[in-house]
Amino acid sequence: xxxxxxxxxxxxxxxxxxxxxxxxxxxxxxxxxxxxxxxxxxxxxxxxxxxxxxxxxxxxxxxxxxxxxxxxxxxxxxxxxxxxxxxxxxxxxxxxxxxxxxxxxxxxxxxxxxxxxxxxxxxxxxxxxxxxxxxxxxxxxxxxxxxxxxxxxxxxxxxxxxxxxxxxxxxxxxxxxxxxxxxxxxxxxxxxxxxxxxxxxxxxxxxxxxxxxxxxxxxxxxxxxxxxxxxxxxxxxxxxxxxxxxxxxxxxxxxxxxxxxxxxxxxxxxxxxxxxxxxxxxxxxxxxxxxxxxxxxxxxxxxxxxxxxxxxxxxxxxxxxxxxxxxxxxxxxxxxxxxxxxxxxxxxxxxxxxxxxxxxxxxxxxxxxxxxxxxxxxxxxxxxxxxxxxxxxxxxxxxxxxxxxxxxxxxxxxxxxxxxxxxxxxxxxxxxxxxxxxxxxxxxxxxxxxxxxxxxxxxxxxxxxxxxxxxxxxxxxxx
Length: 479
Hints:
The chain is of the alpha+beta class. It has 6 helices and 15 strands. An 8-stranded antiparallel beta barrel has the order 3-4-5-6-7-9-10-11. The longest helix is centred in the last third of the chain and has 21 residues, at 414-434.
């Protein structure tokens, strides 16, 4: 019976593993990370492009309750419940974003009958028992949260529902104590024998504390496969007196911790695979992707294919429009890359700044827009560097000081968005200082989701992605 049950469980696990999809990979620790689903810098999953962790170690403790037996842990003749103890240690390997394999060691003691065997028998007819067990099993791990995640769900998530099932070998020693207060060894089963095979299945709810640590509560159902595990003696003893053998099964409720191993930011089991709709857009922002985007090439390396580039000799570092033409914000004939006064027209011979007789030009109010960020990221994108370099030139040419203001879209909590906006502002401020701007000219300010460029994007699901991206920005204001 035990062997047939194990074979059935293993057969049921195979289709689930087959159904689990191949994943995609994240890069450089940016979004998507262990706190996010969504897309940025993604590529199809191959062993060569692995950029996530897939190994972890888990450990936990809990309480086993013998439920299906002649001697049980739950409300016997005297109405008391008897609680044992359990512990587990496992090495976990993620195969895909939705399926993994765990090698697990379990150790514990169940307590059953009318009284705890550590105490004296309450009367001559009472029977108490305890069973000490050690088990090794291989478990299949299905991540239902990733398996069933909707394609249009790009919100941050930190909870995941897992299902477990597997087989193994169990060794145990079952003791019995009766009214004479004498404790006897009733049954002993050695490991790695045909009669020692068992199976267990259950579910777990994981919470991601950070990129390294997960906390998980599990409820497992353990099928021992025999009628002697409860300490009642042989299958047809006075206690185990049923005419047909019944397996002594028990529940095991545990609370554990998983430590994710590896150098990468994201773990495969927390990775959101449903990002392919953004894939081609992200390739343009990450030139490290080994993918052919332009069939005829990109001669000036401005991100616009030569097939539709109207300016094939764009200077390196210049920001361009969709047609590949270098931007000239103030339309003074000096492209923004060389214009020291980006928002104020001026002659070419004066580097795009107006001729002034009383000193350098200072605008009373300055806003440089366009420094946008990926979702849940404070990384300065390569496409932002031309704007920031122009900002360095402009601020250095002025006598004023400026506020560097960070903002987010409306996803996640207010507190998280506030901290994210502060990180974005501080990263931009650090970039400007490293490139020659005096630190006392800059003040970094985070406004979280309270400073939306498109206020109608509350919540974010009301707007297309380009509007939400525009809300995830840093801009400057003259003090």
